[in-house]
Design a protein that fits this description.
This protein is of the alpha/beta class. The chain contains nine helices and six strands, in the order βββαβαααααββααα. Helices cover about 35% and strands about 10% of the residues. It has a six-stranded mixed beta sheet with strand order 3-2-1-4-6-5. The chain is globular and about 50 Å long.
């Protein structure tokens, strides 16, 4: 039996500002009965998404009684070393609050905050050598602090975290942020999870999609396939030792990494 009725893949972008239209920000949606289709901003279908629009759309859609899983390709948390350096509680909600106070990327660009034009980034910097446990389990995932290199997720992670906080606070229906709200997903709930599209982009024909479109398409397609063949449940519970799971409770986990 499928856990979800709808599958959403989002290829994220940390470029520009929160209200900048970004060609690298792509959204694909599907149900059990079809292949993923690209969704453009409902209010401006002739233009690219902004991060603010994606957050608003997700908030509205996940407030509906439609069990949905959303895969977003940026880091949802930081390495444990970051928490320890700044004496932060091992609590994801409090981490999001602290991050937004120092990196208000829902108001300004990542670059502006990195340059000290606004925000307090110097008080919350990480080491580009730090990797989360889930990144150590992959062959090529980059540190969430390694900016400006091919395949970097640093900008998108720093740009996206405040919008996860926004969803957590504003959505009218409780969202299950996996795995922070628990490794087991409640029946009938909607889930938002971190994904790594490179795990799946070559598994699905590319057709005429560009790289960002293919990434979002592959996420939605894999989520649908894994749910319909009943393998998704096992990916919600990767084979971690108790100590490893305790680390991942704080650092998060990339869905599909086993």
């Amino acid at each position: 039996m499928a856990l979800f009725d709808r599958y959403v893949g989002i290829d994220y972008s940390g470029a520009g500002k929160a209200h900048s239209s970004l060609p690298g920000l792509r959204v694909y949606v599907t149900t059990a009965s079809g292949l993923p289709l690209e969704l453009m901003p409902p209010s401006r279908p002739d233009r690219d998404w902004t991060r603010h629009e994606v957050a608003e759309w997700l908030c509205a859609e996940l407030s509906k009684e439609i069990p949905t899983i959303v895969g977003i390709d940026h880091g949802f948390s930081f390495p444990l070393a970051f928490f320890d350096r700044y004496f932060l509680k091992h609590n994801w909600s409090e981490f999001l609050d602290d991050f937004q106070r120092h990196w208000p990327t829902d108001e300004a660009s990542v670059d502006a905050i990195r340059k000290g034009i606004c925000g307090r980034s110097k008080e919350r910097e990480g080491d580009p050598e730090w990797l989360r446990l889930t990144e150590q389990w992959t062959a090529a995932a980059k540190s969430v602090f390694r900016f400006g290199v091919p395949g970097s997720v640093a900008s998108s992670t720093h740009a996206g975290l405040p919008w996860l906080r926004n969803l957590r606070q504003e959505c009218q229906r409780k969202i299950h942020f996996w795995p922070f709200d628990g490794w087991d997903v409640p029946q009938g709930s909607s889930v938002v999870a971190e994904v790594y599209p490179s795990l799946w982009t070559k598994r699905f024909p590319r057709a005429n999609r560009d790289g960002d479109q293919q990434a979002a398409y592959a996420v939605a397609a894999w989520l649908r396939r894994a749910d319909l063949n009943s393998s998704l449940a096992q990916f919600f519970n990767p084979p971690l030792e108790p100590e490893e799971r305790g680390v991942a409770d704080i650092e998060g986990w990339i869905l599909g990494v086993v």
